Amino acid sequence: DIQMTQSPSTLSASVGDRVTITCRASQSISSWLAWYQQKPGKAPKLLIYKASSLESGVPSRFSGSGSGTEFTLTISSLQPDDFATYYCQQYNSYLWTFGQGTKVEIK
Amino acid sequence: QVQLVESGGGLVKPGGSLRLSCAASGFTFSDYYMSWIRQAPGKGLEWVSYISSSGSTIYYADSVKGRFTISRDNAKNSLYLQMNSLRAEDTAVYYCARVYSYANEYFDYWGQGTLVTVSS
């Protein structure tokens, strides 16, 4: 199985900050990576697919980059609505796997 | 608009069985691959099972293989998960999710989830 490791596990930030979350794969997954946002008690929401493609309706302050084994999700200017947990997911091979999550908290 | 509505969760004893359902609307269900994904309380996301649009291709996570069965009824726009021999570690919110497409297996729509609690 491909293991996905996110860092940090928790991130404290203020409104307006630039935030970067890293996701590393245990083997190359090309660009087959998605990012999701989850708020407490809610289902995950797709933000980014194919490492850097923004899902329709997602604000442009979200961006993704990377390929191979290292990927990043960047929020250019953190907004109050962005405090949530973020997950990466690889879909290079079946047995799709998620990172353990990064919780973005208010500083 | 795309809607996925899960049902069938509840409290069950270890060793028991439960059948989850997911009612789909707002899209041509028979055109899409589907998956079940779960989340234990306070934990991360775990992919559970996947079924192709026709039902001919099915995959399971090792943690549920041999105990869970995924199926679908395209005439009823419904996805199912039969869960047998349930264990405490199966306790989770179970989400059904639409797979964007074959070879692009990210999950573009999710249901609200149904809670399964396995406890004596």
Automatic annotation (TrEMBL), chain A:
It is found in: Cell membrane; Secreted. Keywords: Adaptive immunity, Cell membrane, Immunity, Immunoglobulin, Immunoglobulin domain, Membrane, Secreted. InterPro entries: Ig-like_dom, Ig-like_dom_sf, Ig-like_fold, Ig_sub, Ig_V-set, IgV_Light_Chain. The keyword Secreted applies. GO terms for biological process: adaptive immune response. One of its GO terms (cellular component) is plasma membrane. It comes from the Eukaryota. Residues 2-89 form the Ig-like domain. This is IGL c3502_light_IGKV1-5_IGKJ1. It comes from Homo sapiens (Human). The lineage of its organism: Eukaryota, Metazoa, Chordata, Craniata, Vertebrata.
